[in-house]
Amino acid sequence: MNWFFRWLYDKLRNADMSDKPYPVAANAIEKTNRPGSDGMNISVWAATGGHIVEFRKYDEYKDRNSSKMYIIGADQNFSESLSKIVTMEMMR
C-alpha cells in the first residue's frame, strides 16, 4: 500500500497548483427542433373515482415551469374529457 501513497505524493508534488484558468471549449449549444423538445408534458394518473391529468410546460423566456391539474370523474367519458382538456391547453 506504500506504493500508492508514494505515487500519490509524486503526482501531487508535480501537479501545477497555479490559479491559471482551465481551457474551455467554445462550442455553441444548438436548440433541438425535434417535436416535444419544448412542448408540454402530460401525465395521467388513475385515482379513486376518476383520473388526474397534469400538464407541465417550461417557458424558456421567463425561465419558469407552469403546471395545471385537471380531474376527470369516473362518471365522465375519459376520452372526450381528455380531448377537450388537450385542445384547451394547446390554445393557450
What does this structure look like?
- It contains 2 helices and 3 strands.
- The chain has 92 residues and is of the alpha+beta class.
- It has one domain (2-91).
- A 3-stranded antiparallel β-sheet has the order 1-2-3, covered by helices on one side.
- The model has no long low-confidence stretch (mean pLDDT 79).
Descriptive labels:
92 residues, 3 strands, three-stranded antiparallel beta sheet, 30% strand, alpha+beta
Poorly predicted regions: none
Major pleated sheet: 3 strands, antiparallel
Task: Indicate the radius of gyration in whole angstroms.
Answer: 27 Å
Number of domains: 1
User: So how many helices?
Assistant: 2
Strand content: 25-35%
According to DSSP, the number of beta strands is: 3
Tell me, briefly, the overall form.
Answer: elongated
Helix-strand blueprint:
Layout: H1 2-14, E1 40-47, E2 50-59, E3 64-73, H2 78-91
Antiparallel strand pairs: 1-2, 2-3
Compact overview of the structure:
The protein has 92 residues and is an alpha+beta fold. It is built from two helices and three strands, in the order H-E-E-E-H.
